[in-house]
Specification:
Helix content is 29%, strand content 29%. A five-stranded antiparallel β-sheet has the order 1-2-3-4-5, with helices on both faces. Strands 6-8-7 form a three-stranded antiparallel β-sheet, with helices on one face. α1 crosses α2.
Length: 175
């Protein structure tokens, strides 16, 4: 049986999603307060959650990567999710993450993101990745910058909303 471990850090294990992650996925992405910063600002529905598990499985098959579950090494249970995706079919790989609010402010997001960027560059040969965040989401801006991402343009989306873009280029690449 192939391991679903993607990478680990000093405090975290990051692995591929399992069907058993459904409840944790719903707990993280179903949190209305936390999701005000994600996508359309609405929490995920149970049906969208089930569909996302299917889509993520397809991403693993098609691209070799997708979203991953994050667990602490010292305690069982998923504390959040991170991954590399291509939302809406965009060409450039984009890093995403979300955590249970009980695990915010402890450096887990930054630690996992550093590992994710390294995994993307070293294992997947991705030389450039991006991230997006709401302009008002300064906590996420700090996470992205601490992980080594550079602030990019402030983009106006089709619906008139604004999105702050961040970029990361693998060490040794000029652009």
């Amino acid at each position: 049986m192939q391991s679903d471990l993607v990478f680990s850090t000093d405090r975290l294990t990051v692995r591929r999603w399992r069907e058993s992650d459904y409840e944790a996925l719903l707990a993280v992405y179903g949190d209305a307060d936390a999701m005000r910063w994600v996508g359309d600002g609405q929490p995920i529905t149970p049906e969208e959650c089930r569909q996302w598990l299917v889509v993520t499985g397809r991403n693993y098959e098609m691209r070799g990567y997708g979203m991953y579950a994050v667990e602490r090494l010292v305690a069982p249970g998923v504390i959040g999710f991170c991954g590399i995706v291509h939302p809406g079919g965009q060409e450039e790989p984009e890093v995403k993450y979300a955590y249970l609010r009980s695990h915010w402010g402890q450096g887990f997001a930054t630690e996992a993101l550093v590992g994710l960027l390294h995994h993307g560059a070293e294992d997947l040969r991705l030389q450039r990745m991006m991230a997006t965040a709401a302009p008002e989401n300064t906590a996420s801006h700090r996470v992205l910058q601490k992980a080594g991402m550079r602030i990019g343009e402030l983009r106006t989306d089709a619906d008139g909303s604004r999105t702050q873009v961040f970029y990361w280029v693998a060490p040794g690449n000029a652009h």
